[in-house]
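User: Sequence in, structure out. Go.
Assistant: Echoing your sequence, followed by the structure tokens.
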Amino acid sequence: MMERKILALDIDGTLTNSNKEVTPLTLKKIKEIQGLGHIVAIASGRPLPGIRKIADTLELEKYGGYVLAFNGGRIVNYKTGEVVYQAQVPHNVIMDIYDYIKDKDASYVTYENDTVITGTGINEYTEFEARLNFMPLKKVDNFKKYVDFPVNKCLIGAQDETAAVIEKELNEKFGDRVTIFRSEPFFVEIMPKDVHKATSLEKLLGILKMDRKDLIACGDGYNDLTMIEYAGVGVAMANAQQVVKDHADYITRSNEEDGIADVIDKFIL
């Protein structure tokens, strides 16, 4: 009997090339292993709408793949649309950070279904986030009253120097209750405490009754490090950050050279 594998893939710099496309060879191999019963999971910092186009390209709905959005803050069974796991940012922390941000030269957003919500006004950072994820942007009058739903992630946008100060100050104030880090020089992310791609994949393996030795995780960036260390086979792309390569079991070709196809041939087929 075939050992079923689970292939976890970051998007940008890993699964897609510099044109943000999945190349034909990589796509062919991904469909081939799904047809054989292996599972493909996309693990990304993006919200779900920002992942949909890629998930549809890979035909995850047809084959029963999974999407780990918000760096693992929400796991969705792509075939059924069911949210099988989610971690939430504590409501009181969201509101306290809003009070801290509202008088600063920065934007503050979260996500409601397929919409980016802001209570601080629309600027280049909120527009960039909405555009990147193919989501509409909505300014709400009373943010504190409006946000009464589960929140998997908040995002602050500010000029690089300001963002650095905000990251430091928020970590001092709230670092014991939430995870705060900069994903870009101008973006500060607020995530549930101790939630990242590895914790999320551990939850998914539990749901699927699979072992981590059967997990192959591929990535290139700092937020991929946890899953690369956790997986049975942790793979860094040739274009990955050096620290990611240092912790990987295998370094594949770059995202421009069908590195994922190489991984599939070596470890699954």
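User: And one key feature?
Assistant: The radius of gyration is 18 Å.
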